[in-house]
Write a structure and sequence with these properties.
The complex is a heterodimer of chains A (147) and B (132). By secondary structure, chain A is of the alpha+beta class. Chain A is 21% helix and 34% strand. Chain A has helices spanning 22-31, 42-47, 61-75; strands at residues 12-13, 18-19, 82-91, 100-113, 116-126, 132-142. In chain A, strands 1, 2, 3, 4, 5 and 6 form a 6-stranded antiparallel β-sheet that branches. The longest helix of chain A is centred in the middle third of the chain and has 15 residues, at 61-75. Chain A is elongated. Chain B is an alpha+beta fold and 132 residues long. In chain B, strands 1, 2, 3, 4, 5 and 6 form a 6-stranded antiparallel β-sheet that branches. The longest helix of chain B has 16 residues, at 50-65. Classes of the chains: A alpha+beta (147), B alpha+beta (132). The A-B interface holds A 24, 27-28, 30-34, 36, 38-39, 48, 50, 54-58, 61-62, 65, 79-91, 94, 137, 143, 145-147 and B 11, 17, 20-21, 23-31, 37, 40-42, 49-52, 54-56, 58-59, 61-62, 67-69, 71-78.
Amino acid sequence: MIDPATLVAQPLVAPGVYEVSRAKIREFAAAVGETSALCQDVDAARAAGYADLVAPPTFAVVPSFRGLYEVMSRVGAPLHQQVHGEQGFTHHRPIVAGDELVTTAVLEKARAVGGSHFLTIASVVSDPTGEPVCTARSVVVVLAGAA
Amino acid sequence: MSPLATPTQTFTVTRTDLVRYAGASGDLNPIHWSDRVATAMGLPGVIAHGMLTMGLAARAVSGWAGGPDRVVSFTVRFTSMVVVPDDDAGVELTVSGEAGEPGDDGLVPVTVTARCGEQAVLGRAVAHVRVA
C-alpha cells in the first residue's frame, strides 16, 4: 500500500463505459427490497416520463464505485481491510436502463489515524456528453493491522 | 403538519440477503460473507454491507416519497456494524423518518433513523425528496 496522501487531488477515470441494463436494475431493486413499478415495468416507467426502467437511488453505487475502486487499487489497499464510513449521493436525474455512464473519481482527503487511513473520495458519474448524472462522496476506512 | 407521512418500515436481513446484495452490487468484500475473514479483521462476525443498510433505508424513503425517482439526495454515516448471524432468522432493521419543512428548492428534508435492535446503525442520515 502506498501513502494515500500522494494521490490526493489526482482525478482518475474508471476504464470504459458502464451500460445500465434492465436486468441489473431489476436485480438491484430485488436486493434492496424496492418494489416500485418504475424499477420493474418498462411501460410504467415510460408512462411516468422516463425512457426506460428507473434505477433505485442507491444503484448509483454501481457506477460510482467504479471510480472508487480505481482510487483504491492505486492506493493498493486489500478489499478486506476496507470499511465503508460514509456515503452520499446527489442525483441530477434518475439513472435509467440504457444509460451509458462514465465515472471520474478523485481522492479529496487522506487522514491517517492510529495506523488506519480515512479516505474521502468524490465521484462524478456522467453521460457520454459529459453531463453529470450523479455525484457521490464516500469515506472509506482502511483498517490497520491486516490479517 | 408534516408534509410527508413516514410510517416505520421493518426489514429482515439474512446471510442470503448479503449474498444477493453482493451479486447485485458487485461488492465482493469477504467481510460480508466469510466468517474467517471477518473475524481475522477483528469484526464480531460477518457484517452487512453498509450499502445494503443504506439501500434498505433508501427503499423506505422511496416509499414515503412516492417513488425511487423522487429521492434526489441521500447521505449517511455508517455508525455501527450490522452483524448478520449464520442462521435462518437473520437480524431485523427498523427504518423510521421525520420530514421537515420544504427548502427554497422545494425539496423536503427527511431525517432517517435505522436501528438494529436498540443500536442506531446510520448517523446523520438525511434524504432530500421531491414530493410534487
